[in-house]
Amino acid sequence: MTRYEQLAQEITRQIGAGVLRAGERIPSVRQACAAQGVSPGTVQQAYQLLEDRGLIQTRPRSGYYVNATFKAAPAEPATSRPPRASTVVDVSELVFEILESVKSETVVPLGSAFIHPSAFPLAKLARFLGGAARGLDPRRMVADLPPGNRELRRGIARRYLGAGLTVDPEEVLITNGAMEALNLCLQAVAKPGDTIAIEGPAFYAALQAIERLGMKALALPTHPREGVDLQALEKALGQQKGQQKIAACWLMTSFQNPLGSLMSEEKRRALVALLAAREVPLIVDDVYEELYFGRARPKPAKAWDSQGLVLHCSSFSKCLAPGYRIGWALAGRYAQQVRRLKMTTTLATAIPPQAALADYLKQGGYDHHLRGLRTALQRQQGSMVEAIGRDFPVGTRVTQPQGGYFLWVELPAQVDALEVHRRAAAKNISVAPGPIFSPQRRYENCLRLNYGQPWTPQVEAALATLGKIAEDLC
Amino acid sequence: MTRYEQLAQEITRQIGAGVLRAGERIPSVRQACAAQGVSPGTVQQAYQLLEDRGLIQTRPRSGYYVNATFKAAPAEPATSRPPRASTVVDVSELVFEILESVKSETVVPLGSAFIHPSAFPLAKLARFLGGAARGLDPRRMVADLPPGNRELRRGIARRYLGAGLTVDPEEVLITNGAMEALNLCLQAVAKPGDTIAIEGPAFYAALQAIERLGMKALALPTHPREGVDLQALEKALGQQKGQQKIAACWLMTSFQNPLGSLMSEEKRRALVALLAAREVPLIVDDVYEELYFGRARPKPAKAWDSQGLVLHCSSFSKCLAPGYRIGWALAGRYAQQVRRLKMTTTLATAIPPQAALADYLKQGGYDHHLRGLRTALQRQQGSMVEAIGRDFPVGTRVTQPQGGYFLWVELPAQVDALEVHRRAAAKNISVAPGPIFSPQRRYENCLRLNYGQPWTPQVEAALATLGKIAEDLC
Lengths: 474, 474
Hints:
The structure is a homodimer.
Chain A: H1 3-16, H2 29-36, H3 40-52, E1 56-59, E2 63-66, E3 87-88, H4 92-101, E4 108-109, H5 122-135, H6 140-143, H7 150-162, E5 172-175, H8 177-189, E6 195-199, H9 204-212, E7 216-220, E8 222-223, E9 227-228, H10 230-238, E10 246-251, H11 265-277, E11 282-285, E12 310-315, E13 327-330, H12 335-345, H13 351-363, H14 366-391, E14 397-398, E15 406-410, H15 417-426, E16 429-430, E17 432-433, E18 446-450, H16 457-472
Parallel strand pairs in A: 4-16, 6-7, 6-10, 10-11, 11-12
Antiparallel strand pairs in A: 1-2, 3-7, 5-13, 8-9, 12-13, 14-15, 15-18, 17-18
């Protein structure tokens, strides 16, 4: 065994023994050289080996971190197998029931769709907001109707440059959060009765939009780490007859909600090519694009879009400024249509918050904030996965996504997730049960859990309680 | 002639001679007593007489003001006579063409839908916004999802109390401006293919909403001062067959856009009763409700609604805070449905602006601001009506609404308003041509002009130019 392999084995042991825990930084190359009396090259080789084995990862300008891996890590769920026919969606009522049943402020919000607000620089944003509002030319209050504040649109376009996507600021339409952007895009590309291809499971807001607009959903098989199955999509696209014909896709390429899957660059390119060949528009909900744990921000699928068929939607709500309700759409060839839909539905997005975020992007320290947020999320994921491995029934499977803040938990087949929800709610714990992520209310034994909150004894106890509830239902 | 009649005649002469102009305050009772050597009772009788004759009006805690009446005032347009059949709407494209053709900041915005931003307390609002954002409990960023900030909803409900309407704050849903409120309400009460009764002419955004949702419009005869013709509505409601059946009404009871008509209390009561008897919901767009020139805020139609069938929508965009995009819906029996529609389309309204307006309502001096704004608008109306009387072709008719900031100008029949728009745009003046207010692009010889801006030599010259353009087309 070479020296670098010995060093790698030593660190592996430390991780296995819990000396180094998921999300923690391991010694820098310099520190390790000094401590072990070896050369920087040896340390680098050892770290490369650990990275290749998936035990650690590099973060630029930050160092090396332990991945969420465990001695007794629960297994990963299998690729989903939704029914092959498109279907009318009937789940909105259930979603509202679930969401409205756990609205108390004292609830442990494992079912929440949001990161805990304490993770955001809200005090700093407030200062930017006050300053921006005072400095605004009053004429902007009328002139910044759609598409929105010019500086903010430029700031958003600039950030995409860093992710390998060139965007004309003129294409950026500011919306009331990504939710509005997605809804407008869906209305622009499809009409009542049309079939929309989605992931299985899919974010319930996509299902609600499809249901509200009288469209149909076709859920595609989806791998929990790699995203939607392109062969299945290709097959479905081939069935170009009648109502089954796919009018558009609505997918989450990065850290899909609820699975957390991340499509590779190769897969993104293939997806865009597949759809371009058939002129099928692709709506991408990319609200978690900034919350990656890997080396760099994933390159948006839109980067391979030469036809204007990709409608990319995102927002600041998940990564910086919840409550500001600032999102955007890059709607490609549908840009004018989407802008006009915006004008006739909500007219415009509030002007002062746009100006505040434009200023913050220039000088607020966004990248610094994001680095801290990603580190915290990764650490919290590790703690929650570990707790699930410890507290949940044998046979439980769980994802370990490379970004975002959701775990998808597959309980033993006989456990009814809606019953878990009811019993947990009675104990002041919210969960997001699987059926709200399916047009046909499937995934009856699955839960989406949110790790976007500090790992406290209260949260740890809630996980133990959930495990007990699941055991009782086995 | 009694002493008080002599005094009234004297003031009438001063108004006729332009010594006292529209919107100006006339001497107080005490000042008039001193100046004329008469008793307060005599002055009060004289002022009452002038008020009965429509020459002046009282404003509470402010005094007596000259109405917009003129020696050679243009006549009022007649009640509209739209076609009696409901119709598919096809005007949205034209509306966008018109709106997008005059976007320069140097244009004289007579076609604008907004009051000039200088009329609003934007600096003060900015201070409230900064303060509110700093003081916000971070948890509010998530907790204030629909229906919105509790204090703001209470503040809105309190203001309606003063107008004779009791509202449960729980019914108040905060929206992204009235535009969103109206759109959500329309979706809650009607479906594609349904017929919606509107005023003729109607606000183009209502037409665009009806068009976008695949509904049909039935424009009702409407009096330029008194609003929609209830007999015509009753007749239309009687034709309860097939597609012509009216699924809902969408009306503006106060200072209708573009006519400026104001329905009397008696008429509002009758309207609500008429619709209640047939269980037809009434959407009221009441965004100008605070911009009354009369003695008191008109009592909302919803005050007579015992069935929960009136969906009252309004906002701060026209009277206080353009660009903040804060509106609301009081949706009666449809409240939960509208709230859920909001959740699935834009989720929530930006939180800090809501908190800022809640604070402003408590301590910002809203009533003081509104008094000043109303006085300015009334004065500007007088100046514009006077200019039209002087500069426009013989036979021109114009409204003189008791609130809001729009004039409806009926040019001689042969004048093509779209051509007026084109020629005016070439001279950097925007107008809103009649056809954009009609499902069938009628009102070909009409214009809506905006007097919500300071009366400057530039605006005066623009009116003269418009008059010349119209003359040339006669």
